[in-house]
């Protein structure tokens, strides 16, 4: 009221004010001490309205009530109360002293505590709704149904207003799905290309630091950011001439790429890129497509690529000089067809070859075995130890015959400890016991030394006997000759210089010369004392070991493959167990339960929990399954390759 008085320059002695609230009038005229809020309001009224006289008027005669309640324009034009005021003001001001009783409860201050809420709307890394969908089709269908619901609500309003509206179809139409797709494209573009869209809207060019500056982007009539390019005159579709822009690292982009990848029946990255460019332009498209296709579980299962890890260091048993066959690896080869005796009509049976290879000198020892039983291997081991010396450590794979032999040796050890008649045997076993070490199941690369020896043995046998069935005596003779050939192989590459020394071979450590060499003359009749001959032999042995350290050992320094360090598998990772007898789609799924890192901290063997138990397998026999939520494991799947 003071504002109106000051703006209009009014200066009256008395001012009259009416209100339809009896409670407010009691607050003004009462001398009661009110609460702080009411007291401040009443004090302000008394301070700024000293010459104002307050009266009561019914709400039906108060023009201000029209403003608070609202009224249609047609009714307002005919409303005399708004244009002329209440009827009582047309006459002289009556005596309107307010003296009606008001309940005490109504005079109390009504306090309503209203919480103050503040909202901050910001763009997160990904639109949260996109994380709930794994398929672009599902996302578009849900969005289309939301649009249909909104349109149906609007349709009911139009129908009430008698506006003709066509009925929607029962099934989603292509136009509805396309509308939903373009809605998400605009949201994603607004999130990822906000500065570019703002510059284009203002009529400016995009920033020089923008990743799409070379594409001459523009906004079409639907406010979708498209590639301008240089193909305006090409007679192709609008989507191919001006494809829609999408960012590289976005959940929606991954849904688009995954949908196209599945539509093309899990085609490769090149085919997916060729199909996507007909409608979309993804920044760094090749990287985005490779990232999605590399995480496709179906493609990972079909490729069957194994997890790789850097080749481990050589064990101490291979790099420290000891006597030959003190540390050996053992493996079987075969079966080979053999016959009982010479002549026609003799029965045939299967024979096997047991190979012992020295870890230091790579010398080979071959034994003919008639069966793959633990008893047969123990007998073979006794023959080997009698001729080459008892080994300290034996390395082998997890063959059932080897595991059984290890158990029987342990049983023999327990029996000899408890038998009083065999104290000498117990003493011998305790003095010269054999330590047995097994490689992980299904890991032939852990036994590459003896696997290569078996390959060489098979090559020589096939070259000599072919398909001929030999008897036991003939086969033993052939194996002795093959053993001599293998032990005469050079350990290092041979030089073409005639002044160089003779190539170092495993037989130099066994007999001091090449086994297959031509015999030299007998110098035993020369007048040389025994001590000088012994010193000469020791000098030769030391010379061989020196050459072994300088020539052969240095060759083992390089890693022929698997030279890069790869990310380790982690606890809880999912992997497929490769099984040669099954197709990749039927490989068992396992979860990593335990890690077995090497001395360098790299994991090459893990224990997995599968549906029917627990397995211990090397990483080379596992096919890692990537997860969409874990980007750090992408390098594992991309670096995996099939191992031999």
Question: What portion of residues belong to β-strands?
Answer: 5-15%
Q: Indicate the overall shape.
A: elongated
Give the structural class.
alpha/beta
Domain tally: 4
Largest sheet: 5 strands, mixed
Strand order of the largest sheet: 9-8-7-10-11
Give a short overview.
The protein has 644 residues and is an alpha/beta fold. It is built from 24 helices and 16 strands.
Write a structural description.
The protein is of the alpha/beta class. It has 4 domains: 2-107, no CATH class; 128-294, no CATH class; 319-459, Ribonuclease H-like superfamily/Ribonuclease H (Nucleotidyltransferase, domain 5, 2-Layer Sandwich), CATH 3.30.420; 574-639. Helices cover 40% and strands 14% of the residues. A hairpin with a 5-residue loop joins strand 8 (348-358) and strand 9 (364-369). Helix 20 (448-464) crosses helix 21 (472-487). It is elongated, with a radius of gyration of 47 Å. The model is unreliable at 412-431 and 636-644 (pLDDT under 50). This is Integrase catalytic domain-containing protein. Residues 320-514 form the Integrase catalytic domain. Pfam families: DUF5641, Integrase_H2C2.
Compile the SSE list and pairings.
Elements: H1 2-8, E1 15-19, H2 22-29, H3 36-48, E2 52-56, H4 64-69, H5 73-77, H6 80-84, H7 104-107, H8 136-160, H9 174-192, H10 194-201, E3 218-219, E4 225-226, H11 238-241, E5 244-246, H12 251-263, H13 269-276, E6 280-282, H14 285-294, H15 297-303, H16 316-319, E7 327-339, E8 348-358, E9 364-369, H17 374-388, E10 393-396, H18 400-418, H19 423-431, E11 435-438, H20 448-464, H21 472-487, H22 507-510, H23 530-555, E12 574-577, E13 588-597, E14 603-610, E15 613-618, E16 622-624, H24 634-639
Parallel strand pairs: 1-2, 5-6, 7-10, 10-11
Antiparallel strand pairs: 3-4, 7-8, 8-9, 12-13, 12-16, 13-14, 14-15
Helix pairs in contact: 8-9, 12-14, 13-14, 17-18, 20-21
InterPro entries: DUF5641, Integrase_cat-core, Integrase_H2C2
Protein name: Integrase catalytic domain-containing protein
GO biological process, one term: DNA integration
């Amino acid at each position: 009221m003071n504002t109106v008085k000051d703006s209009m320059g009014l200066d009256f002695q008395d001012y009259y004010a009416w209100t339809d609230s009896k409670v407010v009038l009691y607050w003004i005229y009462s001398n009661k001490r009110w609460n702080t809020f009411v007291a401040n309001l009443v004090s302000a009224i008394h301070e700024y309205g000293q010459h104002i006289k307050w009266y009561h008027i019914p709400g039906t005669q108060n023009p201000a009530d029209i403003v608070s309640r609202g009224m249609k324009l047609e009714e307002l034009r005919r409303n005399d109360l708004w244009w002329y005021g209440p009827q009582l003001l047309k006459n002289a001001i009556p005596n309107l002293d307010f003296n009606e009783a008001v309940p005490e409860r109504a005079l109390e201050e009504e306090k309503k505590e209203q919480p103050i809420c503040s909202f901050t709307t910001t763009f997160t890394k990904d639109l949260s709704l996109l994380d709930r969908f794994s398929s672009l089709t599902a996302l578009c269908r849900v969005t289309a149904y939301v649009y249909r619901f909104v349109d149906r609500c609007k349709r009911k309003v139009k129908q009430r207003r008698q506006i003709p509206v066509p009925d929607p179809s029962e099934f989603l139409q292509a136009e509805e799905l396309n509308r939903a797709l373009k809605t998400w494209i605009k949201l994603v573009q607004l999130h990822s290309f906000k500065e570019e869209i703002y510059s284009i809207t203002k009529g400016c060019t995009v920033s020089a630091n923008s990743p799409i500056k070379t594409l001459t982007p523009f906004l079409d009539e639907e406010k979708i950011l498209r590639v301008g390019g240089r193909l305006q005159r090409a007679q192709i579709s609008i989507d191919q001439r001006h494809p829609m822009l999408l960012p590289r690292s976005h959940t929606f982009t991954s849904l688009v790429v995954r949908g196209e990848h599945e539509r093309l029946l899990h085609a490769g990255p090149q085919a997916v890129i060729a199909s996507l460019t007909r409608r979309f332009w993804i920044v760094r498209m090749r990287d985005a497509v490779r990232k999605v296709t590399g995480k496709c579980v179906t493609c990972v299962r079909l490729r069957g690529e194994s997890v790789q890890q850097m080749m481990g260091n050589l064990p101490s048993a291979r790099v420290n000089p000891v006597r030959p066959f003190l540390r050996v690896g053992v493996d079987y080869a075969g079966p080979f067809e053999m016959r009982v005796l010479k002549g026609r009509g003799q029965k045939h049976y299967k024979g096997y070859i047991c190979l012992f290879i020295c870890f230091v000198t790579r010398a080979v020892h071959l034994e003919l075995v008639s069966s793959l039983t633990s008893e047969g291997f123990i007998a073979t081991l006794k023959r080997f130890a009698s001729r080459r010396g008892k080994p300290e450590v034996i390395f082998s794979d997890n063959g059932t015959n080897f595991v059984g032999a290890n158990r029987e040796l342990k049983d023999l050890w327990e029996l000899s400890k408890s038998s009083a008649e065999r104290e000498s045997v117990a003493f011998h076993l305790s003095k010269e016991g054999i330590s047995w070490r097994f490689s992980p199941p299904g890991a032939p690369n852990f036994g590459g030394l003896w696997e290569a020896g078996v390959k060489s043995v098979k090559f020589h046998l096939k070259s000599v006997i072919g398909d001929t069935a030999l008897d036991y005596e003939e086969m033993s003779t052939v194996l002795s000759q093959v053993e001599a050939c293998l032990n005469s192989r050079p350990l290092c590459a041979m030089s073409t210089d005639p002044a160089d020394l003779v190539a170092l071979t495993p037989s130099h450590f066994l007999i001091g010369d090449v086994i297959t060499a031509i015999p030299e003359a007998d110098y035993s009749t020369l007048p040389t004392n025994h001590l000088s001959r012994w010193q000469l032999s020791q000098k030769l042995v030391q010379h061989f070991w020196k050459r072994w350290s300088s020539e052969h050992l240095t060759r083992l320094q390089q890693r022929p493959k698997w030279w890069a360090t790869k990310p380790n598998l982690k606890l809880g990772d999912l992997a497929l167990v490769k099984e040669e007898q099954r197709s990749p789609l039927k490989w068992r799924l396992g979860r990593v339960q335990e890690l077995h890192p090497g001395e360098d901290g790299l994991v090459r063997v893990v224990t997995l929990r599968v549906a029917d138990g627990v397995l211990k397998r090397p990483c080379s026999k596992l096919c890692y399954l990537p997860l969409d939520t874990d980007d750090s494991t992408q390098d594992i799947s991309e670096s995996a390759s099939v191992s031999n």
